[in-house]
Write a structure and sequence with these properties.
Blueprint lengths: L1 H17 L18 H6 L5 E2 L6 E2 L7 E5 H6 L15 E4 L7 E4 L14 E5 L2 E2 L2 H4 L6 E8 L13 E7 L8 E9 L4 E10 L4 E12 L5 E2 L5 E2 L1 E16 L2 E15 L3 E3 L35 E2 L6 E16 L3 E19 L12 E19 L4 E22 L4 E2 L21 E23 L2 E23 L10 E9 L2 E12 L2 E12 L21 E14 L4 E28 L4 E29 L2 E14 L2 E5 L24 E5 L9 E10 L6 E11 L2 E3 L4 E3 L2 E11 L5 E8 L7 E4 L5 E3 L1 E2 L7 H4 L5 E3 L3 E5 L4 E9 L1
Length: about 800
């Protein structure tokens, strides 16, 4: 541990130290703003993307793509990848718990806790990387690209909704250049970052970058922990060594270290409660609640408060080595991308986040170390006209053992823990103390081999390809109880699962340049996600709630892109239809009641289940990108997506037996003969509206050597009705404003800004009903078995958990370039 901290400190010191290197010369950078007003007034600069694994103008790519350049990220103070959604309509990047980063694109969501492949794959320097690591620190970025639609050919792993590729800046070989930036806000936020290129020769160069970031995350304070606030601190450093011995060979070796320490409290709203249940019939059948013992005070959205009594803390330590190399052989280019990643996640949290049982902390500690080794080798023809081809092989392997230590105490019911008649029983002391030790060793690997062919003749381009994959999974789950339960087959539980899939994925596109400034295209994509197996699922629960089927996706997209008015106005429009067979999603907090062995074994509670259901998606996306004058540019993008289940039978909470999700009854219940309730769903695949819009603009006012400017970034999400959680989400209008000034040749820049200028504090995510903790009814404690009926009552916290948009925040940024 001491060596780890020393390494981190040394890297950060080196990173910050090199920012002070005097400016020798300033290299022209593709992601820097144009400084020639005349040139800017004539045409809009081309955006070059690598969505197809080769550099192409955005207009020529037969795919719907959103691009955020490094310049845009810095202009709009995007210090977290999740804020990229402000530049890409239909993209939702959220973290409601502080622990898991959730990505939703084209109405398809993903919960990282599901243990499945993501619906949107994230790539860092062309290597798939988990979102938990990549989203944590964003600095010294060259470009982020959001690729929409099924991905099954171009990159190593398949995904049904899209991919996000992140490319870090590479060193310059001809001059020293870099930047240093300092930002501070009125809500205790700070961000210090920068990077510099140091050319040793025209063949060898180094780029070093670093980041120190702190903020209050969701800006929530905990009223039961003395007003303690959510907080985050992230430190990261990156070094990239570039080697270019000849004109036809280049290689970049990158090392990045990340340390993040987040403590985020779960916000709740509601009246609170004096949690209680009825006492035993033989004691009179009455309730004597103690008003002095409450879950917490009445809380609203703008209180931004939590009531949990235990800690939530997530620490992430990650080291990534990445190698990218290209060798131009003349007729073809040989490319290698490889990476080694070691990550350790240490998560401590109170599972009773809504304080349903005051004075009790349901502590959980999860340690997840894992190693991921990845490599891809590609050989691609270089010819621009006629027949082209490409072949490649990809391999990735992940190993690691997750260890979970968790309190899983069982409360007996019915009785009131605060009733004076039961004062002999220690207040709030669980009647059956129970601890779980869960170990989950994981060993998964994917081999894939792909080939593609293309034909280009003048304005016509046709491409098609397939990828064959071998996906292996080995997972063993061991669960140990303390004290031992003594029930055959449950102590300990040992669950060994092996899986093997051989999917074929791929796609095809045809595009035609109607004019030099207008392309039309038609594309088809097919993707695959392997089925899943539940970890630590309730004992003896039905198999359909443990194992899921693999998912297959087919999509067709028609679009056109181009520019008009002498390339002062760019546009793109895409319409698509997608069919998902056995869409794999996660259903959280579903109440279960398992009765086996003639009623000798019974358990109930809530669990998060993976489940399949057929679905369809259809929608349209459009973008306008304008540069009407040398000193004014703006962008407007909109997306409409209707992503719905198609008569799918899925797990739900149907306490009242209505056939639709509801939690209106006093106590949880299962409708039907299964272990959980099932509902026929035609609902949304994710808790997002069908429509979304983003817009941004900058107006400059040149005044000699100084250039004052005004910037604005706006996003709009309409309100919608959620049947899943029985709630009407309000519309959201998020406006960020920036006012500043740039110096000569953009050498320095200072601005002040306001995030969420309108100070809207809207609920972005809410639980289905109040948070409750179940109890177990035991006839042996004096209750009538008929009254128990196989289940207990529940402690009601009086709160619903929510995620709310952050309040207004003012800040200032000072930046230097050289």
């Amino acid at each position: 541990m001491k060596v780890l901290h020393s390494t981190r400190a040394a890297l950060l010191c080196c990173s910050i130290g090199v920012f002070a290197v005097p400016a020798i010369a300033r290299a022209a950078d593709a992601d820097q703003p144009q400084t020639d007003p005349q040139a800017a007034s004539e045409i809009m600069p081309d955006i070059v993307v690598t969505a197809t694994r080769q550099s192409q103008k955005l207009q020529d790519v037969a795919m719907s793509v959103n691009v955020a350049t490094g310049e845009q990220l810095e202009k709009f103070k995007i210090f977290d990848v999740k804020d990229v959604q402000q530049l890409a309509p239909g993209l939702e990047l959220t973290n409601t718990t502080g622990r898991n980063n959730t990505t939703t694109l084209r109405g398809v969501g993903f919960d990282p806790d599901s243990g499945t492949a993501p619906t949107v794959q994230v790539y860092l320097n062309e290597i798939p990387t988990d979102a938990q690591t990549v989203y944590t620190a964003i600095y010294d970025i060259q470009q982020i690209e959001v690729l929409r639609g099924p991905q099954g050919l171009l990159r190593g792993l398949s995904a049904p909704a899209g991919s996000i590729t992140i490319e870090t800046r590479k060193p310059k070989f001809d001059s020293v250049e870099g930047y240093a930036e300092l930002t501070a806000t009125d809500r205790a936020g700070y961000n210090v970052q920068g990077g510099v290129s140091l050319p040793f020769s025209d063949k060898l160069a180094l780029r070093v970058a670093g980041l120190v970031d702190g903020n209050r995350l969701n800006n929530v304070r905990d009223v039961n922990r003395g007003g303690e606030r959510s907080k985050s601190r992230t430190e990261s450093a990156r070094a990239t060594l570039g080697w270019r011995p000849t004109d036809n060979f280049s290689a970049y070796l990158t090392y990045q270290h990340l340390h993040a320490d987040n403590s985020q409290f779960q916000q709740v709203i509601g009246a609170g409660n004096t949690p209680t249940v009825s006492i035993f019939p033989y004691l009179g059948g009455f309730v004597v609640p103690n008003p002095a013992v409450r879950s917490g005070p009445a809380l609203g959205v703008k209180d931004r408060a939590a009531v949990q009594e235990g800690l939530f803390r997530l620490q992430n330590d990650t080291d990534i080595f990445n190698l990218q190399a290209d060798y131009d052989l003349g007729a073809a280019t040989l490319s290698l991308a490889a990476a080694h990643q070691f990550t350790k996640l240490d998560i401590q949290r109170d599972l009773d986040a809504a304080n349903a049982i005051p004075g009790y902390v349901q502590a959980s500690n999860v340690i997840t170390p894992y190693v991921v080794n990845t490599a891809e080798l590609r050989l691609t023809s270089n010819n621009k006209e006629g027949f082209g081809w490409g072949v490649g092989a990809f391999y990735t392997k992940q190993t690691g053992t997750t260890v979970v230590n968790q309190k899983n105490d069982t409360f007996l019911a019915p009785y009131d823990l605060n009733d004076p008649l039961l004062s002999a029983i220690p207040s709030l002391n669980p009647d059956v103390p129970l601890s779980l030790l869960i170990t989950v060793p994981v060993n998964t690997s994917t081999w894939s081999f792909n080939g593609n062919a293309s034909y280009k003749s003048g304005p016509l381009t046709i491409t098609a390809g397939v990828r064959y994959s071998i996906i292996k999974g080995n997972q063993a789950t061991s669960i140990f109880f303390t004290p031992k339960l003594g029930i055959p087959g449950t102590d300990p539980l040992l669950d060994v699962v092996k899986s093997l899939y051989h999917p074929v994925t791929g796609g095809a596109t045809i595009s035609y340049a109607i004019t030099p400034d207008m392309n039309v295209y038609l594309s088809y994509g097919h993707s695959f996600r392997a089925g899943s197996h539940a970890v630590a699922a309730p004992a003896f629960i039905s198999d359909d709630l443990v194992n899921t089927k693999p998912e297959k996706t087919d999509s067709v997209e028609l679009g056109f892109k181009g520019s008009v008015l002498d390339r002062k106005l760019g546009y793109s429009v895409a319409a698509y239809y997608q069919k998902l067979n056995n869409f794999l999603s996660r259903f959280t907090g579903v109440y279960f009641n398992v009765v086996r062995f003639g009623g000798a074994y019974q358990s109930s509670g809530s669990f998060d289940f993976n489940y399949n259901g057929d679905a369809t998606i259809k929608g349209i996306e459009a973008t306008l990108d304008a540069h009407p004058t040398p000193d004014w540019d703006f962008n407007v993008s909109g997306a409409y997506t209707r992503a719905r289940y198609k008569n799918a039978k899925v797990p739900c909470n149907d306490y009242a037996g209505t056939g639709i999700p509801n939690v209106d009854a006093t106590n949880p219940a299962v409708t039907g003969s299964g272990d959980v309730s099932y509902c026929i769903s035609n609902n949304r695949l994710a808790e997002v509206p069908d429509f979304s819009l983003t817009a941004n603009t900058e107006i400059r006012f040149p005044m000699g050597n100084l250039t004052p400017y005004v910037r604005a970034l706006f996003t709009y999400r309409p309100g919608f009705r959620s049947q899943t959680v029985n709630y009407n989400y309000q519309d959201r209008e998020l406006l960020n404003m920036f006012v500043g000034v740039r110096g000569p040749d953009d050498r320095w820049e200072f601005d002040v800004f306001a995030r969420n200028l309108l100070n809207q504090q809207r609920i972005a995510d809410i639980s289905a009903g109040n948070a409750k903790t179940g109890t177990f009814c035991a006839a042996g404690y004096g209750a009538d078995a008929a009254l128990c009926n196989g289940s207990g009552t529940a402690f009601d916290s009086g709160y619903r958990s929510v995620s709310v948009t952050n309040p207004r925040e003012f800040g200032a940024t000072l930046k230097f370039r050289w």
